[in-house]
Amino acid sequence: MSSAPEQGTVQEARARGRITPERPAAALNGSTRATVRPVLTRPVWPGTPTPLGARFRIGPEGVAGTNFALWAGGAEAVELCLFDEEGAEARHSLTELTHEIWHGFVPDVRPGQRYGYRVHGRWDPWTGARWNPAKLLLDPYARAVDAGAGNDYGVLPPEVYGHVRDWPQQHVADTVRDDRDSAPYVPKGVVVHDDAPDDEWTDDRRPKTPWADSVIYELHVRGFTERHPGIPAELRGTYAGLAHPAALEHLKALGVTAVELLPVHQFAHEDHLLRRGLRNYWGYNSIGYFAPHAAYAASGTRGQQVGEFRRMVRALHEAGIEVILDVVYNHTAEAGELGPMLSLKGIDNRGYYRLQSNDARRYADYTGCGNTLQVVQPHVLRLITDSLRYWVSEMGVDGFRFDLAAALARSFHDVDMLSPFLAVIAQDPVLRRVKLIAEPWDVGSGGYQVGSFPPLWTEWNDRYRNAVRDFWRGALPDVRDLGYRLSGSSDLYAWGGRRPYASVNFVTAHDGFTLRDLVSYERKHNEANGEGNRDGSDDNRSWNCGTEGETDDERITALRRRQLRNLVTTLLLSTGVPMLVAGDEMGRTQGGSNNAYCQDNETSWVDWTLRDEPGWRDLFALTSRLIGLRHRHPVLRRRAFFSGRAHSADGLRDLAWFTTRGTEMTESDWYAPAATLGMYLSGRDIPGRDARGAPVVDDSFLAILHAADRPASFVLPGPPWADAYEVVVDTSAEDQGAAPGTVHRAGGAVTVPGRAVLLLRVGSG
Asked: According to the UniProt entry, which residue ranges have a biased composition of type Polar residues (predicted)?
């Protein structure tokens, strides 16, 4: 390690003339330029500016090699750096420049070759220029990443920063350039084979589940497989583990149609976590938008992870399950001005990131993670769309959930639903055909955009989450909001041709309490994160049923399990697309943590022993049964919003709401305090036709949701609504393995147990 830089502020040095564009701040750093060990060098032929990235191919005169192309707007020079097995580096100047793309073809460079770039330019942070050729940079288009020894250190070494991280005066540390070589400490790109067959991911090889028929299961590749006893130990925590028959068996038995994988793009760990002995577990810290995260590969990190990921997708498809990726294009792992220099920051900081208009040293942060990608820049937009198309066309995925999507929809400042990003997606022949899910908010001003995304998009509906949680904990002042959420949230989505499946309904997600913790804790317990329990939301809308945390009190335990059944049943009977979180179907707990983003341990991993415990086994059985019921009955997965109007002479409507008296809800009933709501779904008034053009006809159902702790008498509506009702689900019963089957005459009263859902099928009596 070099000696520490001398004391004094950069402003003082600038005032004395020691820092100018001709004499960069590196003059204040006593370190020397990194040395390069001699290795075999190769000629660099001109190559081509497209495609971007490193692409192995047959070049001129039949010579095999790799074409390298890097967009680096504003750079003065670019060096391609190749690394041998011992880590020795050979630098090759890319002298060809076409439309700000530096490119060259290097003969005999084959798949498995590790590489990176050094980019030369001005160091002038006051104008946003942060070029530093001492820092090895990851290719944004690298299709595989080898972290190597860079993943073994306990903290980020100072060499990975473009500035002097430990400069005594931290408020100006980002302006002092660090000339120490970062190559030994940073991940490197890997040249890979483009070996996906042209017909690998055609439509006839994909499940192609319609949106209305979808049931999404959010899971973490490592967390879902790490403790599964049926998966061989060497495959746990990996893509191969998720493709294993034992993992697929659970998904198929549950009945979900799609897995939504928490981020699998290559990501990095934050220094503040490493210093506390933790790691980034969720993965919302991307640094490689084309590369499957290497740590989830069982087969190797020199390109093998690409084939392993493809095999995982193929196995899921063969099981009838789609693959949706949770993607993080709003920011990168390079954080703010005091963050590390790993890739984009050193390639063209001003081109890739939004900088503050009045202070180019600082980043515009709409993400809460230190930086925001400048999506309005054409090459940044190209990076994102090229990445998306790659994952669809060459890796086989079926859709994307966009983290903090409002940040991507910002034009220059405000969120704009006519923004370049949304416009490009809408016209792209590949991307407009896959599933697109927005997390419709960011942390900036005006960032909350639930209900605002255009057709083609679905959205995480947090208003659904809040209303359902509040109803079952007794915190809703009335049932107006609940009625909207149960019936598809037409108040949010019935515009511009959008459909009920524009709403992704969820009660829990990776971010927040698990379902079990939602009924066991009223306060977050994030002490293990080392942040004084200040992290994580304080707005949990949870109820612990009388005792904080786990308890041996059988009465409280029984109530909690009933509440879990109520929440799952409500979710799967609601119109829209339901999303479950891995392990919630069998009572997974995080011990009250509502922000387990850095808990890569048993706190976050699915505990498969729960599946064998009677109470939790019953919850799994109910969840599976409800999903099966949903698949069999189109009235529960409508493709169009309810009209609420009578479609026949007898006055029967497609949707009707009832009070406990058996009468239809009036305007005053909607505004009155209530803990009970009856929802009638008519199966004979389903709009649309089946594949052969025949009308869609189904059973009709009455769902009664009762959130009070005491039983309630509910009068069952008589003709024309029904002559009789058969109980299909009663959440007051622990064992839901088979339909209760009790039949009740219409017009009579049924006793609804306290805190329960009754689902009744309409019969003729």
From this structure: 1-10
Please report the pLDDT score of residue 194 as a whole number: 79
Q: Is there a common fold for 53-191 and 461-603+621-764?
A: yes
| CA–CA distance, 254 with 583 (Å, rounded to integer) | 11
* Mean pLDDT taken over the chain: 92
Tokens of 626: 């409800």
Residues 6+ apart with CB under 8 A from 352: 344, 345, 373, 374, 377, 380
What is d(CA 764, CA 428) in angstroms, rounded to the nearest whole number?
A: 51
CATH of 53-191, one of 3.90.1640.10, 3.40.5.10, 2.60.40.10, 1.10.10.10: 2.60.40.10
**Alpha-carbon distance 485 to 480, whole Å?**
9
The H-or-E segment that residue 578 falls in is strand 577-581
Q: DSSP per residue over 392-413, as a string?
A: HHTT---EEEETTHHHHTBSSS
The number of C-alpha atoms within 13 Å of 453 and in the hemisphere containing its C-beta is: 31
Eight-class DSSP state of 271: H
Which stretch of 235-249, 366-380, 553-567, 642-656 has the lowest confidence by average pLDDT?
642-656
The Cβ of residue 299 has, within 10 Å, a number of other Cβ atoms equal to 17
Q: How confident is the model at residue 648 (pLDDT cuts 50, 70, 90)?
A: confident
The residue from 139, 179, 270, 439 that is catalytic is 439
Q: Are 305 and 295 in contact (CB under 8 A)?
A: no
Tens digit of each residue's pLDDT (9 = 90 or more) over 517-560: 999 999 999 999 999 999 999 999 999 999 999 999 999 999 99
Closest CA to 185 of 136, 122, 145: 136
Segment 513-519 mean pLDDT: 98
Beta carbons within 10 angstroms of residue 25's beta carbon: 26
What is the spatial distance between Cα 567 and Cα 708, in angstroms, rounded to a whole number? Answer: 14
Q: Read off the pLDDT band of 688 (50, 70, 90).
A: confident
Determine the straight-line distance between the first and last CA of the chain, rounded to whole angstroms. 85
76 included as an active-site residue: no
The span from the CA of 388 to the CA of 398, in Å, is 10
Q: What is the rounded CA–CA span in Å between residue 329 and residue 327?
A: 6
Give the tokens for residue 709. Answer: 């702790």
Whole-number percent of the chain with pLDDT over 90: 86
Mean pLDDT of 367-394: 97
Q: In a 3-state reduction of DSSP, which class is residue 723?
A: coil
Say what the pTM is: 0.94
Phi-psi region at 638: left, alpha or beta (left = phi > 0; alpha = psi -120 to 50): beta
Model confidence over 398-415: pLDDT tens digits?
Answer: 999 999 999 999 988 899
Neighbours of 747 (CB within 10 A): 15
Residues 305, 238: Cα–Cα separation, whole Å: 10
Contacts of 35 (CB under 8 A, 6+ apart): 181
- CA–CA separation, 739 vs 360, rounded Å? 64
Beta strands in 357-441 (DSSP E): 359-363, 399-402, 435-438
Class of domain 461-603+621-764: mainly beta
Note the pLDDT tens digit of each residue in 62-79: 999 999 999 999 999 999
Catalytic hit among 79, 146, 334, 403: 403
For the chain, give every domain's residue range.
53-191, 461-603+621-764
Q: Which residues of 655-679 are buried (b: 16+ CB within 10 A; e: fewer)?
A: bbbbbbebeebeeebeeeebbbbbb
86 is catalytic: no
